[in-house]
Amino acid sequence: MASDGDKGKSSLPNNNAKASAIREDGAFWSIFAYLISGLLFWGGMGALADHFLNTSFLILIGLLIGLSAGLGLIWMRFIRQ
Amino acid sequence: MTGTLNLVGYGLSAIGPAIATGMIFAAYINGVARQPEARSILQPIAFLGFALAEALALFGLVLAFVL
Amino acid sequence: MSAMLNRSGAGFAPPSSADFDFKPIFGNSIFTTKPVFLCFLSVILIATFFILSARKAAIVPSRLQFAGESVYGFVRGTLGEAVIGPEFMRFVPFLFSLFTFVLTNNLFGIVPFLQFPTMSRIGFPISITLCVYVCYHWIAIRKHGFIKYMKDVCFMPGIPAPVYIILTPVEFATYFVTRPLTLAMRLFANMFAGHLLLLIFTLGGEYLLKSGALIKIFSLFSFTFAIGLSFFEFGIQCLQAYIFTLLTALYIAGAVADEH
Q1: Does domain B12-66 have CATH number 2.40.50.100?
Q2: In sequence order, which residues have a C-beta less than 8 Å from that of residue C107 and are 6 or more positions away?
Q3: Does the CB of B15 have a partner CB in chain A at under 8 Å?
Q4: Distance (Å, rounded) from C-alpha C5 to C-alpha C205?
Q5: How far apart are CA A41 and CA A61, in angstroms?
Q6: Which family does it belong to (chain B) (predicted)?
Q7: Partners for C (CB, 8 Å, 3+ pairs)?
Q8: What is the phi/psi pair of residue C145, to 5°?
């Protein structure tokens, strides 16, 4: 808990470090969300395609596309700066 | 008791990414604690490692349900 | 194995998701069950506590005022100012009520005689997540305009055009489906699993206590574990309330930021 004594001083570097640590925390959850939505969306597309075309390999291709899309977005949003 | 062995397999396979994530963060925290100004260099590397380990875990989860 | 024991007669019935369904206390409506009353109770408790702590505000704070102010200072400093930036003051009331509401409802899980975290019914996390969802999209649309916001969310600059076919649906799904979904699911799953864990140890201890003389001793271990895990759960409950509010603040910060 932030004590009230700290608030008056509010030394800038300390506050900045805290803020960037908190943003990092959010970034990890965002990475998780990107991976999940990539897999779910393109995997779901693959499953639908499988269902209508009576094949069984398209879901695997969909999952791989989703995985690479998620990783690509993470690369662009968080790693390449 | 009924169920599918896929989930047992997924449980076993999740051990790997779990240990990997722990080691990535341990190394990252160590690095930042030793040299706080290196954070901006270490951060993308930690993100990349976390994303790859997590990707494998999620891929396993999806395959456990699909196969 | 437990199912086999059950079939053979008097065995230990492990707690299941059926333990989370409550009969209406009166009448025949789903709005008179225990979680709903706990939800109302939490609102009354929060209002009473903060009205009492702020009523006689003095420069030298009383103990109650100090408690109220340190919660407020925590939300305002760590979750508001550090995350959202210069415009944070507009969102502090929202973040503060969110944090106290989730925290109180989570803590009901280990309060004796109440002993049910309201957030382990999926409806409660979903409804507060809906508030957050509407809030941060509304802020972003007000700030950037609908078309520019959609363009910001779905199209990253600096990518060759054909790649957008693959990336845009994923971005859209992340912003509009996965983020709110994980926000609600994380809170729900933590509270559900925590309550189930406590139930297993208390019900197991009770069952052991009812069986033979020598086995009665082992119920002591089970109850000790239940008490120890209650403290562990206390940590989880505070942490989940913090994470929920932190992620809300981060989403709002993303909405008020100039570019994504």
Answers
A1: no
A2: C117, C234, C237, C238
A3: no
A4: 17
A5: 12
A6: Belongs to the ATPase C chain family.
A7: A, B
A8: 90, 150
